């Protein structure tokens, strides 16, 4: 019998198109895997009927000789930050519990149009705020990976797209959507040995995605290889007049353009990312990545991104500032939860609903954001952070004079244990140190597996590209994938 759990997007799409198997068979097999993986807590809601319905439609189209879409017959997971018509959408928060949108996000609609089906809504950090999935109201996701020291300690799948990364690494689905505001596609991909790309800001519509920090939020695909990411990104991207920052450009044929020959490409190695005390495993993986890209024909050059050390503090001002504004809409009137203490008025309802409905990390961000936007502190914090953001974007602009792509680690360490960083928000924020610069500059950036740490956990290599040059990013990712020999998988203990 065909093991559909080991097939990627391309293999399922091609097998369905060639009549080797039916889309319904794939949906049934993966529905069963999702149902049997409750221990991972990757899904908030399972929608087996949606997966079957989409698959049956694809099988019927094929039988009728109709053309099939780019993702025809491929069941995927949908991060529960995307509004899905008729299916609860919570952003992993209590305040949105029970919210059933009457509309579909543009990205998810694009995927259904391309023939994909939905296995369910994936768990995440609450409102996508976090790097470990521990801020979810619905409990943390567990990574399918374990250290090789026999400890069986539960590890973080990364965040905020931790349900997505865990489900893909556990082979519950071949691919899933992610969103990346400051690393939430790349860091969870790195922690779980999979690939994921955040495209240029504006490639994927933000319409119908629960907003976190609108000037940074960007959707992208997560999957087990580079080709699958290219296919899914093609299906997700495209101009959308309903998003004022959507790019009015045609969607390139990234899959057809895949080419791992990097002759003529210059790869920049940013010296500021070689932090003092960098983890040995990470440094060794980075060196391997450099060697692989040279082997693929690229020239490697040293570059400087001088404002890198200000990226993290700037991000943790800008993102909470935008979040505090975006989250003002959750007032107990329009969506989800309403907490109305006896005999209380409108203000009391707002306060009670928001106090009960937002988790601790979300409340922290709203308070930081409100503070940095307040009259007395706006210039000192928010304006300064915006200036730093411009300098970071300029660093990249200047770097492009001497290179075409940048290679760096995705995260400063392998996956950490659940609970290890929850008491120290700064330690948690530091995990995003390599991810946020590309977010602040709006650039495409991808994580691909780069090897294993000494204790047997996946590590990710990050490729950052020029605006709109996802193709070169994907191609460098492919060159690494072809050379890294990364075949490690999480053992099936759940
Ligand atoms: N970890 C980062 C944060 O907590 C990034 C989150 C994201 O990209 N959604 O803000």
From TrEMBL:
GO cellular component: glutamyl-tRNA(Gln) amidotransferase complex
Keyword Secreted: no
GO molecular function ontology, one term from the record: glutaminyl-tRNA synthase (glutamine-hydrolyzing) activity
Keywords: ATP-binding, Ligase, Nucleotide-binding, Protein biosynthesis, Transferase
Active site: 79 (charge relay system), 160 (charge relay system), 184 (acyl-ester intermediate)
Record GO biological process: translation
InterPro entries: Amidase, Amidase_CS, Amidase_dom, AS_sf, GatA
Cross-referenced Gene3D superfamilies: Amidase signature (AS) domain
Domain spans labelled Amidase: 25-474
Enzyme Commission (EC) number: 6.3.5.7
Enzyme class: ligase
Reactions this protein catalyses: L-glutamyl-tRNA(Gln) + L-glutamine + ATP + H2O = L-glutaminyl-tRNA(Gln) + L-glutamate + ADP + phosphate + H(+)
Function of the molecule: Allows the formation of correctly charged Gln-tRNA(Gln) through the transamidation of misacylated Glu-tRNA(Gln) in organisms which lack glutaminyl-tRNA synthetase. The reaction takes place in the presence of glutamine and ATP through an activated gamma-phospho-Glu-tRNA(Gln).
Description of how the protein assembles with itself and partners: Heterotrimer of A, B and C subunits.
Entry's family note: Belongs to the amidase family. GatA subfamily.
Protein name according to UniProt: Glutamyl-tRNA(Gln) amidotransferase subunit A
Source organism per UniProt: Sphingorhabdus contaminans
